[in-house]
Amino acid sequence: MTSGLGRVDMGARLGDAEVQRVYSDVEAYYGARVAKYGATPRGVDWSCQATQSLRFVQLLRICDFAAPFALNDIGCGYGALCAFLDLRYPDSRVDYLGVDLSRAMISRARRRFRRTDRRFAVGRASPRPADYSVASGVMNVNVGYSRAVWEDFIAAVLQDMRRTSRRGFSVNFMSDVVAASEAPDNSPETRLYRTSPERWIPYCENALGCSVETLENYGMREFTLLVRCRQNLAKDLPLRH
Amino acid sequence: MGAMIKDSTTLEILVQLNKRFDTESLPEMIELQKEFSVFSNKRSLRQAFALLGIVPTDWSERRRWYKFLDHLKTYPSDLPKVNGHDRVIKAFRDGLAAAAPIPISIKCHSAAEDPRVTVAKGRPVVFTIETHLIVSIPTTPGREVRKQVAEIVRKRRAAKKK
Questions:
Q1: Biggest alpha carbon distance in chain A?
Q2: A86 lies in which domain range?
Q3: Where residue A17 sits, what CATH number does that domain have?
Q4: Beta A118-122 vs A194-195: how paired, if at all?
Q5: Number of domains in chain A
Q6: Is B31 close to A219, i.e. CB distance below 8 A?
Q7: For the segment A98-153, what is each residue's pLDDT rounded down to a tens digit?
């Protein structure tokens, strides 16, 4: 079985060295973006603050803001979600941890937010369990890898999010049909990963044991999956650092 | 535009604006307006366009672009007691909130012919089939403004010599 679906259905199959290479390339890609565009939406490949925020609106639908909670932000970039939380939910108590592969991004995030409930870590996955996890745009730029390899990478990210989320997590993907002009970078070595909800819903339901709600039709050529955990694995499983 | 920002910047901004509000991108803009009230009385045009990332790529031009947007407050419009700045905001706000929204186009017209910011429905370019909401900004080409200024200075000097 060499199709992307087969690989993912059988679990992430990337070897350690290959995984490390993918993560290194992702880190290099975003390190270069932030060096070029700074701590701005363009620095994390979004066209503007408004579209970046509209994605946060969708992703945060997984959270229950009625009570305090802990949130992991995977691929947090320069911490734009912190500013959004402060603006949109000024009275809510969110214990936030932003995680990113890029040291340059985390360094900028730490400079921007110096609060005890806003913390950041360099890494692949969150070093702690939280009530919820979100990942915005993490799956979009495949940094030149084949679809099969990239889907293994996505499966690994989803597994990590599942493992470290007590109640649920949310992720967004670009839809199948996207104009070429939407590409954040038209250079030939950078390609976008596009998919459909049907591609990842069965994986989240069957392999990760979750229930999934799909958000579409919010004006963008993409969709958001709200993945609710049927069982709290985060309290039982050892964390990978 | 014209005197306040470079002609090349004007062209770049027009391309950005017309791309963000064309048929293809309209659903996104409608959703952004619904969610964040991007165009409203509580937010200046400078803030709205900054939020949408509609800014010159040339950093040195950004300050001039924002200054130009503020300067629109001194322009008249096709609505009585509504200045050019507020007219643009109203056009975007009403257009995006319409029951059947249509694409929005921005274009320029000669300030010498009509000094007002105008809003009308029509086809902005000959190959467009759809009706657009056309927001038109009065503009004086930079070269013309520079000529006018040079002429004023020349006349002043001549008057001084006398």
A1: 51
A2: 4-229
A3: 3.40.50.150
A4: unpaired
A5: 1
A6: yes
A7: 999 999 999 999 999 989 999 999 999 999 999 999 999 999 988 888 898 999 99
